[in-house]
C-alpha cells in the first residue's frame, strides 16, 4: 500500500504512527486540536476533525479516499474513563461504528488495549476470553466488536503499555517512561507499583507493526496482540530507566498499586501473541525489550541535568 492513509487521533501513538507512515506515503492526521509537533515537520498533513460527527467523517473520507485507516481515537486515560464511563463509551464506540459503516472495505487498523482483560491471568493471547474490568476496557472491547462486525478488513491491534519520548510540557499524563525519565533526570523520586505487571512496547515498534499490517496483501486475523518481550512490574521498569539514564537507583521506591493512580488497571496488563511472528507481514519485526528501548530513548532526555 502506497496510497493515502488517514490516522484518526494525534496523541503519542497516533503521531508516532503518522510519522512512520509519512516516510513512505501520503498521510493525513485528523484530530480535534492540532498536535504539539506540526505534522508538516515530518511530511504529513493535519486536518481538524470531530470523529464523533458522522457527516464530517464522511466528507473527509470522500475527499481523501484513503487506502488505509488507523484509528487511535478516544480518551485513553483509564482514570478519566472510570469517572466518565458514558462519555468514554460514546467516544470509542461511536467512532468505530462510523468508520465501519463508511469504509467497510478499507483496511482499518484500530489500536486497542490490554485493558480488555481483567488481569486475572498472568498472560493474555488472542485466544484469551475478553473480560474488561474497567470503563476504558469495556469501551474498547465494544469498539472492537462494532468494527469487526461490519468492516471485513479490520484488524484490532491490542497493544500493551506503549512508551516513547515526550517533552516534559506535553501534559500531566505523560507515558510512564517519559514521566519517569524527566523526574529521574531532575533527581526527583519515583513511586512505582511493584504489583502491576506489564509488557511494555516501544512506540517505534508499534508504528512498524501498524505499517506492516496496512501493507499486507493477504488476509489478516481480526485480532492481534502486540506486547514487548519483557514481563516486569512498573517498579522494575522504573529501575531499568534509572540505570540507563545514570540516575541513582534509590530514587525509585516500590509501592502497592492500590496507593497509585494505577489502582483501576488490571494487575496483569500483559499481552503475548500466538500469531504476530507467523504472519508474512510482521514475522521479521524484532520487538525491542525495555533495556534496549531505554538506551535508544536516553539521548532524547539529555537536555535535562542528570543528578
Describe the protein's topology:
Layout: E1 5-8, H1 12-22, E2 27-31, E3 45-48, H2 54-64, E4 68-71, H3 78-83, H4 85-102, E5 107-113, H5 135-150, E6 154-159, E7 162-163, H6 176-185, E8 190-193, E9 197-198, E10 201-202, H7 203-215, E11 223-226, E12 232-233, H8 234-245, E13 252-255, E14 268-269, H9 290-297
Helix pairs in contact: 1-7, 2-4, 4-5, 6-8, 8-9
CATH topology of the largest domain: Rossmann fold
Mean pLDDT: 93
The strand count comes to 14
The coarse overall form would be: globular
Overall CATH architecture of the largest domain: 3-Layer(aba) Sandwich
Characterization of the model:
This protein has 307 residues and is α/β, with parallel strands linked by helices. It has two domains: 5-163 and 201-228 and 271-278, Rossmann fold (3-Layer(aba) Sandwich), CATH 3.40.50; 168-197 and 231-270 and 289-301, UDP-galactose 4-epimerase, domain 1 (Alpha-Beta Complex). It is 34% helix and 17% strand. The protein is built from nine helices and 14 strands. It has helices at residues 12-22, 54-64, 78-83, 85-102, 135-150, 176-185, 203-215, 234-245, 290-297, and strands at residues 5-8, 27-31, 45-48, 68-71, 107-113, 154-159, 162-163, 190-193, 197-198, 201-202, 223-226, 232-233, 252-255, 268-269. The strands form four sheets. It has a seven-stranded parallel sheet with strand order 3-2-1-4-5-6-11, sandwiched between helices. Strand 1 (5-8), helix 1 and strand 2 form a beta-alpha-beta unit. Helix 4 packs parallel to helix 5. The protein starts with a strand and ends in a 10-residue tail after the last helix.
Amino acid at each position: 500500500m502506497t496510497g493515502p492513509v488517514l490516522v484518526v487521533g494525534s496523541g503519542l501513538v497516533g503521531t508516532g504512527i503518522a510519522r512512520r507512515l509519512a516516510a513512505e506515503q501520503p498521510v493525513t492526521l485528523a484530530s480535534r486540536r492540532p498536535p504539539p509537533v506540526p505534522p508538516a515537520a515530518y511530511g504529513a498533513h493535519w486536518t481538524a476533525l470531530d470523529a464523533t460527527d458522522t457527516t464530517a467523517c464522511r466528507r473527509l473520507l470522500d475527499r481523501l479516499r484513503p487506502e488505509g485507516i488507523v484509528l487511535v481515537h478516544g480518551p485513553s486515560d483509564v482514570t478519566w474513563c472510570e469517572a466518565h464511563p458514558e462519555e468514554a463509551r460514546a467516544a470509542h464506540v461511536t467512532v468505530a461504528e462510523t468508520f465501519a459503516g463508511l469504509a467497510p472495505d478499507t483496511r482499518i487498523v484500530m489500536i486497542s488495549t490490554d485493558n480488555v482483560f481483567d488481569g486475572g491471568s498472568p498472560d493474555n493471547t488472542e485466544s484469551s476470553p475478553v473480560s474488561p474490568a474497567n470503563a476504558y476496557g469495556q469501551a474498547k472491547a465494544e469498539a472492537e466488536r462494532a468494527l469487526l462486525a461490519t468492516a471485513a478488513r479490520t484488524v484490532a491491534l491490542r497493544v500493551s503499555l506503549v512508551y516513547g519520548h515526550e517533552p516534559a510540557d506535553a501534559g500531566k499524563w505523560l507515558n510512564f517512561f517519559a514521566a519517569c525519565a524527566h523526574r529521574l533526570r531532575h533527581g526527583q523520586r519515583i513511586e512505582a507499583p511493584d504489583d502491576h505487571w506489564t509488557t511494555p512496547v516501544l512506540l517505534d515498534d508499534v508504528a512498524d507493526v501498524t505499517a506492516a499490517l496496512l501493507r499486507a496483501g493477504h488476509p489478516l486475523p481480526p485480532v492481534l496482540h502486540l506486547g514487548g518481550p519483557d514481563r516486569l512490574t512498573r517498579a522494575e521498569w522504573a529501575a531499568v530507566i534509572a540505570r540507563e539514564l545514570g540516575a541513582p537507583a534509590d530514587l525509585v521506591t516500590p509501592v502497592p498499586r492500590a496507593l497509585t493512580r494505577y489502582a483501576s488497571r488490571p494487575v496483569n496488563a500483559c499481552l503475548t501473541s500466538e500469531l504476530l511472528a507467523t504472519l508474512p507481514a510482521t514475522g521479521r519485526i524484532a520487538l525491542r525489550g525495555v533495556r534496549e528501548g531505554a538506551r535508544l530513548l536516553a539521548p532524547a532526555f539529555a537536555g535535562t541535568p542528570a543528578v
